[in-house]
């Protein structure tokens, strides 16, 4: 398999790759003219080559770009090529860059660098901003946004994040095993609200909980139990 590495890597790393994968032929270059002269050579390309060259790479099957975004490859220039990105790999690096820039502007670093060049001492304490208890908005809560939120949380800020799509809520939990084995389960209406409420109260139950049928079949369920303080409680749900 012919693999073209369109990145600047050391000769030591290239030798290590050849030793690890002897069945592959590796080439490393940053010169596009070599790819333009023989575009049919690589079966795999690692790196962000210009999208205009991809239709000419007739034997190319896999393009691994090193960036998270792939706007430059839209619409897909070659239908026979599978393209993958470095989406999650770059998240820590990008998040650290975001937090560094955020702190630099909050602490007015450009202003103090200017004062340093001018050999001027600015003693005003109101210039640096305190970010503790401030609200920080994150537009896009993917791998980068989550990492930014994780790094900012120890600073005591209030985080608000938005994302383009929200996953559906998880399904309600199934009834506990003791409910599923109950002989009366055929007419019980296991409401998720009642199950959740009863499970929260289990640590305070002395004599256990039991379900009793009320009304017509599957119309409502009544939960009765005795608390650790001896008070009788009951609830109904539909």
Task: Walk me through this protein's architecture.
With 238 residues, the protein is α/β, with parallel strands linked by helices. It folds into three domains: 2-84, NAD(P)-binding Rossmann-like Domain (Rossmann fold, 3-Layer(aba) Sandwich); 91-162, NAD(P)-binding Rossmann-like Domain (Rossmann fold, 3-Layer(aba) Sandwich), CATH 3.40.50.720; 177-237, no CATH class. Helices cover 27% and strands 21% of the residues. The protein has seven helices and ten strands. It has helices at residues 11-20, 32-37, 91-106, 109-117, 143-152, 177-180, 192-200; strands at 2-5, 25-28, 44-46, 62-64, 82-84, 135-139, 158-162, 205-214, 220-227, 232-237. Strands 2-1-3-4-5 form a five-stranded parallel β-sheet, covered by helices on one side. A hairpin with a 5-residue loop joins β8 (205-214) and β9 (220-227).
Please specify the SSE layout and strand pairing.
Layout: E1 2-5, H1 11-20, E2 25-28, H2 32-37, E3 44-46, E4 62-64, E5 82-84, H3 91-106, H4 109-117, E6 135-139, H5 143-152, E7 158-162, H6 177-180, H7 192-200, E8 205-214, E9 220-227, E10 232-237
Parallel strand pairs: 1-2, 1-3, 3-4, 4-5, 6-7
Antiparallel strand pairs: 8-9, 9-10
Helix pairs in contact: 3-5
């Amino acid at each position: 398999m012919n693999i073209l590495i369109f990145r600047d890597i050391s000769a030591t790393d290239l030798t290590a790759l050849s030793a690890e994968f002897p069945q592959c032929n590796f080439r490393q270059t940053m010169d596009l003219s070599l790819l333009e002269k023989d575009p049919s050579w690589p079966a795999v390309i690692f790196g962000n080559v210009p999208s205009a060259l991809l239709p000419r790479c007739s034997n190319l099957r896999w393009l691994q770009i090193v960036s998270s975004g792939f706007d430059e490859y839209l619409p897909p220039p070659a239908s026979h090529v599978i393209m993958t990105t470095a989406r999650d790999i770059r998240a820590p690096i990008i998040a650290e860059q975001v937090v560094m820039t955020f702190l630099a502007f909050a602490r007015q670093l450009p202003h103090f660098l200017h004062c340093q060049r001018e050999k001027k001492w600015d003693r005003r304490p109101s210039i640096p901003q305190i970010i503790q208890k401030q609200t920080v908005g994150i537009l896009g809560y993917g791998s980068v946004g989550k990492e930014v939120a994780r790094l900012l949380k120890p600073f005591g800020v209030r985080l608000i994040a938005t994302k383009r799509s929200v996953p559906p809520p998880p399904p309600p939990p199934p009834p506990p095993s003791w409910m599923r084995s109950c002989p009366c389960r055929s007419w019980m209406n296991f409401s998720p609200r009642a199950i959740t409420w009863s499970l929260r109260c289990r640590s305070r139950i002395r004599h256990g909980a039991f379900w009793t049928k009320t009304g017509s079949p599957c119309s409502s369920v009544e939960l009765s139990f005795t608390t650790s303080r001896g008070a009788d409680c009951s609830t109904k749900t539909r």
